[in-house]
Every structure is written in C-alpha cells, then in structure tokens.
Amino acid sequence: MARAAVPGRLSWRVARLAEVRDETPTARTLVLDVPGWPGHLAGQHADVRLTAEDGYTAQRSYSIASPADGERVELTVQRVEDGEVSPYLTDVFSVGDPVEVRGPIGGWFVWRPADPAPVLLVAGGSGIVPLMAMIRARRAEGARTPFRLLYSVRSPREVFYAEELRAAALSGVEVSFVYTREAPEGWAGEPHRIGVADLNSHGWPASFEPACFVCGPTGFVESVADILLALGHDPRRVKTERFGPTG
C-alpha cells in the first residue's frame, strides 16, 4: 500500500532485495535486507527512495507487511500504471539490487500483542497490507487475541496473501470477504460494497470494545468508519489509514 512519503528525521539506509513473491497479477512482495533496521510495530510503514542517473529522486511510502524480524522487512507493492516508483519495484527491481529505505514511520495505527482487546480489521484492496502485518504479528507472538478480518476486493484474483489467509482462518482468525465486482462460485449474495449488514455480521459488537483498524482508499475508509461509529463503536478505538493518488 503506497502513500505520499512524509519527510522526517530518520536516516536513509541502503537495503537490498533478498526475495520476491507474487501476490496478484499486479502486486508483489519485496523481501528486503536492511542493515541497521531498528525494528518496527505491526501497522507502521517505510519510505522508499529511487535515484535516477541524472540525480532525480522519487520516493513513496509503503506499509510494512511483516512483523518485526531482525533486519528483514517485507513491503507489498501494488503497481500503478502511470506511477514513478511502483512500476520499477514490481517489474524491474531484481534480487540483489539496492534501494534506499527510511523508517519505521507511524505510531498510532499500530497493534501491540500485549493489548488483550478483540481486534477488527477492515481492509479495502491493498489496504490489507498493514493489517496482514498485525495478523502475522499475532501468529509470531503466539497470541490468542480474538481477530476478525473483513476484506473487500473487486474479485478473487485480486486477493493478497490468499493462501496465508486461508491458513489464518484455521488458526483463530475469522476471515470474511466482500467482493465488489466479481464473486467466486458458491459465494452467498451478489457483489456489493461493504455495508451495515457486513459489519454487523462479521465485526464485533460495540459492547466488546474492540480495537478497530480500517485501511484502504479514502472513500472506503470514510464509509466504514462512519458505519462503525453509527453502530456505537468508540471513536477513540476506530483507527484509520487511507491512501490515494500521490500526484
């Protein structure tokens, strides 16, 4: 998931691509070795900077897909056809190549395994990336925190981490999907956008005081947050991250 990069006081580090995993026809996970990486929390992000031979630079911010793992960091990048950075990262960037990375960034949209409250994750498209880091952190810590994920995608072909989400559903994470354009055979209902009924059926009651994390395009995030508040959820426990065009 990409955002416009936010300047900060963190130092740039030279990372190298160690491994690549295709997630969908237009997205792939980059496994980076980042010497001196200080660690991160699930939900944080990192800046990536590219420099051309003529000195021109372009940078974007990508959610971290992995839990803390020493000096290894995973970013899942969705290709934007007219983008400056994502086409290089998804189509050209090869194992062994260097790239500049800065982070971790962000301290509000994060989940900590010590928090015992139930967790509701609501993702729209590539907004699943930081939420997947939370699911993976739960597994890595051996936590038994109740997790529910409601994931909205256009079609089954665009589901990130499909096999891993199936495995997560067998290890205590309740995973539900909403398809907006094309649903798989046997899926109950017609393609639609997430609504009150979906959040009532697949979310937690407000009385449980869950920690809610919503991530996706701006319109999606605003709609879901409004529904959660209307259902009685505490605004202080509804945390949102949104993304859109970088200009």
TrEMBL record:
CDD domains: FNR_iron_sulfur_binding_3. Residues 10-111 form the FAD-binding FR-type domain. One of its GO terms (molecular function) is oxidoreductase activity. Keywords: 2Fe-2S, Iron, Iron-sulfur, Metal-binding. InterPro entries: Cbr1-like_FAD-bd_dom, FAD-bd_FR_type, FNR_nucleotide-bd, MRET, OxRdtase_FAD/NAD-bd, Riboflavin_synthase-like_b-brl. Its cofactor is FAD. It comes from the Bacteria. Gene3D superfamilies: Nucleotide-binding domain of ferredoxin-NADP reductase (FNR) module (3.40.50.80), Translation factors (2.40.30.10). Pfam families: FAD_binding_6, NAD_binding_1. SUPFAM superfamilies: Ferredoxin reductase-like, C-terminal NADP-linked domain (SSF52343), Riboflavin synthase domain-like (SSF63380). PANTHER family: NADH OXIDOREDUCTASE HCR, PROTEIN RFBI. This is Ferredoxin-NADP reductase.
